[in-house]
Description:
single chain; 35% helix; alpha/beta; 609 residues; 18 helices
Amino acid sequence: MCGIVGAVAQRNITPILIEGLRRLEYRGYDSCGVALHVDGRLQRSRSTARVAELEAQVASTGLAGFTGIAHTRWATHGAPSSGNAHPHFSPSSSDARIALVHNGIIENHEELRDELRALGYVFESQTDTEVIAHLIDHMYAGDLFDSVQQAVKRLDGAYAIAVFCRDEPHRVVGARQGSPLIVGVGQGENFLASDPMALAGVTDQIIYLEEGDVVDLQLQRCWIVDAGGKAVQRTVRTVHAHTGAAELGPYRHYMQKEIFEQPSAIANTLQGIDAIMPELFGDGAHGIFQQIDSVLILACGTSYYAGMTAKYWIESIAKIPVSVEIASEYRYRDSVPSRRALVVTISQSGETADTLAALKHARALGMEHTLTICNVATSAMVRECALAFITRAGVEVGVASTKAFTTQLAALFLLALTLAQVKGRLPEASEADYLKQIRHLPVAIAAVLALEPQIIAWSEDFARKENALFLGRGLHYPIALEGALKLKEISYIHAEAYPAGELKHGPLALVTEQMPVVTIAPNDALIEKLKSNMQEVRARGGQLYVFADSDSRVKPGEGLHVIRMPGHYGQLSPILHVVALQLLAYHTALARGTDVDKPRNLAKSVTVE
Length: 609
């Protein structure tokens, strides 16, 4: 979640650190800070405002240096405050020796805090991070690299840290366990960051640190040891971060931009796919797909709803049973493993901590047939899985996922077709029809985006509400869940989603004139059942807002508002309907004046459990 940038150079690195934070702000924005080595002392500036305010503070004080670290925080331990903001110093005094920033959660921080207090350390924050700074200071005996190696052996939990020392002015040390950290290699200078995007324009030579690695950065040296303390060489990759993709252009918010990028994002994801073939998912996919007899999908949040949609597709088209698990729950229960299951993880970033942990748990249970659907080719998820399909959504900055979700759906639909083909359950005529529909998706989504003016009119009604229900049936039920999630994430309206048939089993008690009920009404086999559910709402005075396919014969009336979607799009209909729900959430949040791209209490990349 949080963002880290660090550097050791022979030039003033303050602008590099601040610009890096700006690019990582979507990962956490409760507070931010920067610390530098200045004239033999550690100096820092911290803020509970956004990075722009920190930049102004730094400019007003003239803070500059050749060695330093910076951080943007998503709060876990301790409320957002200047005292809890990173970087943290040790000792906590004007003559501090150690400066440190940290992503992750230290699970044994209370035990370590008691131990360090007994040694005389004073804690000025409620964070688990300050424990690490004091622990490193306690173990410091003249070599920062050695003291960090000793300290991390005492830590339980997940962490990525960057630390530097007053007494070693041209050195930054980093370490990672369960949280991403990369090294940027320069000429006579080196860098640390949570994400290569933070270093775009500075260096494109990137090293992805492995679990347990500790790295020593100096001006002319980058030295890495593994969890056992053995010196290792990690591959230096050329990574071109997408700086241009992170520019707003004519849009008001990144979320709006990313909603409207979906036709091109899906076109990019499907580019070059002229036939269904296992090799789309990696070398060896055909052999693995032949062996499997079931699918286990592991994901969180929006990606979990993508997995729920995929269950309908895979079971309907490929006739293979599918289980979908919330990754954060899966490894904490007794499950029944199957060595013939295909374990599919879904993650935009490929660094989602709960999903990575669930994947490792599944593998520990003997399930080695693994595949990830991911937007980042260099991520931990891709490295951990035997197979991968890389979506080409591009950089997604808005915290509420849009184009990452629809490209995941496109990839999962391809997976359903591929599994069906390998199992001999995809006739050539059906394959041709599906491919034709897939290729037409960008045009069909553009037609949905053209409905924006009508959706804006609805949003003005929604902006005055505090609760909403979303209804869907069959493979549109997960889309109803995603629509409710989008609305609550960015507008702060309480929203729930149900299979429409469940309405009379409890949720109907909530229906009044003040409860808008959003209904997804595709012209499929369940449309008449859905109309009956809608009548249940109307009979109780509820207000229905229906996204109806143009051929579904749902007519507007008293308490029944209808927006006509394109004609029914078959199995791919969920991808069209979710775009309309994204627009509804976006414009409702806009009308309520919330921070669309950076909703309260949330962050983009969830790298803590």
